[in-house]
Amino acid sequence: MATTGERRSARRDRTKKRRRITFLGVFGELSITAGALIFLFLFWQLWFNDIVVRAEQNSAAESLSESFIEAAQEGPATEPTEPADPAAPPIGQTAGDAERFGVLTIPRFGDDYQAEIAGGITRARTLNTIGIGHYLTTQAPGEVGNFAVAGHRTTYGKPLNQIANLRVGDAIVVQTAEGWYTYRFRTLEYVTPSAADVLNPVPQADGVEATDRLITLTSCSPMYSAAERIIAYGVFESFTPITDPAPASLELPEGDG
């Protein structure tokens, strides 16, 4: 028969065991709950939320595009000035920080893809809320030199998510109040975040006078990282006035759709 001391010792052991089991059980349940919450947050932030924001950005860009056409149909507020070079396209308007002035369309990205372009590349005011930001120190659409823009590759609607899928000859179309500027994609490259010379009038060439009209798209690389920058270059091909029918360059590439 167990003594009184032995019985007390056995009760203490059972109590400690129950407490240990209870603590481990609660800790395990909390860990599972925390993991589920993290998973749901990532699902929302990296997938579902992007779908919602991307749809909103497409819709906003479509509305802006239509407003350009409607304004042109009502007639210009002032008589346009004749360009010095009749063969040159008119220089497209740009705008200040977080002010919308254009629409980017890249048919390779899908038949419903459009993104508004605004001045500046601040995350809070332009990239996170509008979509595509214009480097204010670079040239305007249609201007000799380098019209350079930036956009997210992941999150916030990820307007440049498919930048690495571009193929040589793909259309990159910028619409402003003046009309549509069609550029053709030429090449991709990867640079360090400090490589600001990709924004030069002649990319990566200091002090060289530009003779071509270029577009440069910049985004982060690799995916979900800012270790590098992915850069896409395009060369100006043609200009279509806003009073004309939309250019064929807006159509999906052959074999797509």
UniProtKB/TrEMBL annotation:
Region (Disordered): 71-93
GO molecular function, one term: hydrolase activity
Feature: compositional bias, Low complexity: 71-85
Keyword field contains Hydrolase: yes
Superkingdom per UniProt: Bacteria
Gene3D superfamilies xref list: Sortase
Catalytic residue positions: H152, C220
Pfam (any one): Sortase
Protein name: Class E sortase
Taxonomic lineage of the native organism: Bacteria, Bacillati, Actinomycetota, Actinomycetes, Micrococcales
